[in-house]
Amino acid sequence: MTQDNVSPRDIARSLPSILRRFPAIARGYYYYAVRNDNKDLTLGTLVERNARKHGQRAAVLYEDRSITWRELDEWANRIAGFLKAEGLGKGDAVAVFLENRPELLAVVAGAAKIGVACAMLNTSQKGKVLAHSINLISPKMIVVGEELVDSFEGVKADIRTSH
After folding, report:
1. Is 124 helix (H, G, I), strand (E, B) or coil?
2. What is the sign, positive or negative, of the torsion defined by CA atoms of 58, 60, 61, 64?
3. Domain membership flag for residue 4
4. What is this structure's pTM?
């Protein structure tokens, strides 16, 4: 049986290791809290910043595709514009039912640009479990990848959105 409690002796034993790493911890805090001029750091703002600084560098390498920071930012801006045109804004939620691919990053970055939260759905869910997961979120919109349309169609009638 393992013991989950940490004794004062255990803490004292690990203190030298923690103290050796203290300069790095303090430096990390300094860069985060003091030097970080953008406190509202989201994936959207990160993509924008990197598009300005490193526009032609590759942001995403996926299979045979290469997407630059500028291309990713422009893509995310188009998605943000679409979501906004559909009436979504700060504080709203969308459910994202996409496999792990560049489109997922673009959707999340675009949503973040206008303050929309993304709830990532487990792509292996189907039927009642999938419907339950979506209904827990009560999203204003559901983004479904073409590879998952069949799974989504099977539960579409049981979904409640807040839009």
Report:
1. coil
2. negative
3. no
4. 0.73
We report the CATH number of the domain holding residue 135 as 3.40.50.980
Which residue's structure tokens are 């930012």? 73
Q: From CA 136, how far away is CA 24, in angstroms rounded?
A: 41
- Provide the number of structural domains found in the chain: 1
HSE-CB at 28 with a 13 A cutoff on CA atoms is 5
Q: Are 59 and 67 in contact (CB under 8 A)?
A: yes
What residue numbers bound the domain in which 46 lies?
A: 40-158
Query: Which residue from 135, 115, 127 is spatially nearest to 152, judged by alpha carbons?
Result: 127
Q: What is the DSSP letter of 37?
A: S
Cα torsion angle, 36, 54, 43, 74, sign = positive
Residue 106 in any domain: the answer is yes
- Is position 11 within any domain? no
Q: Tens of pLDDT along 43-99?
A: 898 999 999 999 999 999 999 999 999 999 999 999 999 999 999 999 999 999 999
To the nearest 10°, report the CA torsion of 95, 118, 115, 163: 10
pLDDT given for residue 1 in this prediction:
47
The amino acid sitting at 131 is A
